[in-house]
């Protein structure tokens, strides 16, 4: 029996929905390799920030000297120091861990909720579909940033995990709608109908046939969303409703340094560069995945 994940609507082999086909479509794209290289470097930074901070300067981001406040880059502090005399490089490197954690955790939580609800809505249909759709409409009715600001303002302790949960709460409806549409399309395919005819249970059909063939469109959006969430965290923190010290993130650095930009521009420039490169890399990866998964985008 032909593997369901490789069969298109017309019964022909669709290699873009297989791991091998996706890799073949991706490896010829310079955009994919550039984004992968940049994200690999960022992942290494997030994994061992203390080691890298020790190699290039002050290893402890909280080892501060007020007498060295807002000093420009020097040999001992390659990125200079902030208003409290803390090493900017160490804070940037340790901030990568927090910012990437929030982006990945938000996307993971969002995907779990969206895949569960979107699959139920698309496969079961009926009143359950209507209930989930109306719930998604209610959540979408709240402006993303405004809703996050209201919720976070009521939180006594804004941790990275709480921030990720709040951002995921206001983000899941878009994913759920996309997955619902994909599931509704896939459930009508011949291999799904054949699985039912063979007597397979509903759960097995969904988990082994419907869901794997419905997730491809979300891959590109998920990669882009990680970058969007990192930017959203920095925005909320900059507005004073996100993370607060002693938490370390790029958003916290930008929020703290905003009043000292004219006299100490390095305190804003270096975190901004890392933030921008990260977001652009994730968007590039998302675009590469989208083109690889779209037959019209493959060459």
UniProtKB/TrEMBL annotation:
The coiled-coil segments of this chain are none
- TM annotation in the entry: 32-56, 100-124, 136-155, 161-179, 219-248, 268-289
Domain ABC transmembrane type-1 residue range list: 96-286
Q: Which GO terms describe its cellular component?
A: plasma membrane
Tell me, which GO biological process terms does this entry list? transmembrane transport
What the entry lists under Gene3D superfamilies is as follows: MetI-like
**Could you tell me which Pfam families the record lists for this protein?**
BPD_transp_1
Entry superkingdom: Bacteria
Q: What is stated as this protein's family in its record? A: Belongs to the binding-protein-dependent transport system permease family.
Q: What is this protein called?
A: Peptide ABC transporter permease
Task: Record the organism.
Answer: Jiangella anatolica
Q: What is the lineage of its organism?
A: Bacteria, Bacillati, Actinomycetota, Actinomycetes, Jiangellales
């Amino acid at each position: 029996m032909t593997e369901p994940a490789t069969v298109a609507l017309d019964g022909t082999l669709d290699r873009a929905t297989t791991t091998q086909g996706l890799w073949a479509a991706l490896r010829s794209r310079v955009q994919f390799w550039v984004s992968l290289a940049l994200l690999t470097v960022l992942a290494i930074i997030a994994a061992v920030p203390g080691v890298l901070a020790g190699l290039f300067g002050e290893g402890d981001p909280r080892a501060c000297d007020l007498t060295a406040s807002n000093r420009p880059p020097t040999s001992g502090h390659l990125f200079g120091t902030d208003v409290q005399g803390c090493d900017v490089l160490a804070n940037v490197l340790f901030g990568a861990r927090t910012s990437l954690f929030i982006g990945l955790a938000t996307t993971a939580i969002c995907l779990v909720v969206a895949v569960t609800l979107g699959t139920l809505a698309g496969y079961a249909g009926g009143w359950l579909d209507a209930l989930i759709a109306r719930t998604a409409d209610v959540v979408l009715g709240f402006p993303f940033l405004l809703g996050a600001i209201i919720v976070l303002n009521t939180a006594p302790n804004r941790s990275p995990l709480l921030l990720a949960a709040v951002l995921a709460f206001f983000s899941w409806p878009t994913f759920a709608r996309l997955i619902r549409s994909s599931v509704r399309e896939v459930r009508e395919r011949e291999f799904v109908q054949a699985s039912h005819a063979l007597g397979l249970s509903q759960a097995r059909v969904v988990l082994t046939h419907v869901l794997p063939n419905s997730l491809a469109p979300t891959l590109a959006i998920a990669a882009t969303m990680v970058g969007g969430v990192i930017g959203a965290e920095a925005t909320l923190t900059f507005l004073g409703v996100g993370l607060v010290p002693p938490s370390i993130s790029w958003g916290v650095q930008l929020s703290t340094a905003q009043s000292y930009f004219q006299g100490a521009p390095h305190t804003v420039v270096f975190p901004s560069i890392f933030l921008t490169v990260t977001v652009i890399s994730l968007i590039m990866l998302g675009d590469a995945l989208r083109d690889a998964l779209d037959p019209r985008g493959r060459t």
